[in-house]
Design a protein that fits this description.
This is Lipoprotein. The protein contains 3 helices and 10 strands. With about 190 residues, it is α+β, with helices and mostly antiparallel strands. It has 2 domains: about 35 residues; about 140 residues, no CATH class. A hairpin with a 5-residue loop joins strand 9 and strand 10. The longest helix has about 35 residues.
């Protein structure tokens, strides 16, 4: 009888130890996954795919001259925003040069003059918003409205599940180079 009790205790102890090891392994795996968010999206010249199953609601791509991506020399040529506006659930991938059900692209006019010059400081909030809305008329597209070019750098940001962003550029062989940056927009 004593041997039977001891066997049950050993069996329970083994189950507790294995469960603890499994929990530690799972926690470590999830913690590493959180620390290394660059593996959450696969980006190619033709599409972006969520590797972790995250649905892609929206993201933005800012286009820069290759020479302008230097400290104190930040200049955006254009910015495009892609967002899901359809019914149902967003997809786990967006194909850049195809029409994607429910996704639309918009040229985002970001006007920094208002902030830099504070030219609206004497107006009411309502007047400020009216002026900004008038100057920020957008253009809509059903697919990505540009192609990747070698003399440009593309800053992709705003993806769900990561705090950082990606910088994309073409090398001399027209291969897409994707670099993860663990901060937000510059």
């Amino acid at each position: 009888m004593e041997i039977e009790r001891e066997s049950k205790r050993v069996g329970i102890l083994i189950i507790v130890i294995l469960t603890t090891i499994s929990c530690i392994f799972l926690f470590t795996y999830k913690a590493f996954d959180f620390i290394n968010p660059q593996n959450q999206y696969q980006i190619t010249k033709t599409k972006i795919i969520s590797e972790k199953g995250e649905r892609i609601d929206s993201f933005s791509i800012a286009i820069h001259s290759r020479d302008s991506i230097k400290p104190n020399n930040y200049f955006e040529l254009d910015r495009y925003c892609c967002s899901f506006t359809g019914t149902g659930k967003p997809s786990k991938q967006v194909v850049f040069n195809n029409i994607n059900d429910g996704y639309s692209w918009e040229k985002c006019h970001v006007i920094f003059d208002y902030v830099e010059k504070d030219s609206l400081k004497n107006l009411t909030v309502k007047e400020k918003l009216e002026i900004i809305d008038q100057n920020n008329q957008s253009e809509d597209f059903d697919r990505m409205p540009f192609k990747f070019e070698r003399d440009k750098v593309y800053h992709l940001f705003g993806l769900k599940g990561i705090e950082g962003s990606y910088y994309l550029s073409l090398d001399s062989s027209n291969n897409l180079i994707v670099e993860y940056f663990d901060g937000g927009p510059l």
